[in-house]
Design goal:
Number of helices: 3
Order of helices and strands: HEEEEEHEHEEEEEE
Radius of gyration: 16 Å
Strand order of the largest sheet: 3-2-6-9-10-5-4
Strand content: over 45%
Structural class: mainly beta
Largest sheet: 7 strands, antiparallel
Shape: globular
Number of strands: 12
Length: 158
Amino acid sequence: MDDRMFRNAMGKFTTGVTVITAKWQDEIYGMTANAFMSVSMNPKLISVSIDEKANMHDKMGQVSRFAVSILSDQQRDISMHFARQKEKDKVAFEWFHGVPVIKDAIAAIVCDVYDSYKAGDHTLFIGKVINLETKQGNPLVFFEGKYGTDHLNKNETV
């Protein structure tokens, strides 16, 4: 199988959209990621997968704490900003336990870096959850390379 076939198959899995953020040397760094998951309840651990070519990869190796903001369906522009699909705009941050998080995200999770594992051309960064907060709202979702649910098959009933 070629890379496109693999990517297309992985795109069949609907995911939420997050922005990973960290502060390093008085600068805020962030990236859009949908490779995020919970790992453990005890201790409370999450994982994010970051391409070794991504600018954020090097920063994650230098910081001791990072955040994951789970975006609402009203925050597509923010996702596109951090995916570098849009010109740089001023992004509104809030500070939570010393880490920048996306303002109005439906969840903000602050983690200490717990461990990391190289896996192919990515690194899995494991975070130990320090604290989190949630807000009301609908999630921003991603399926087959597109945002939202409008293109999903509406003919099926649940």
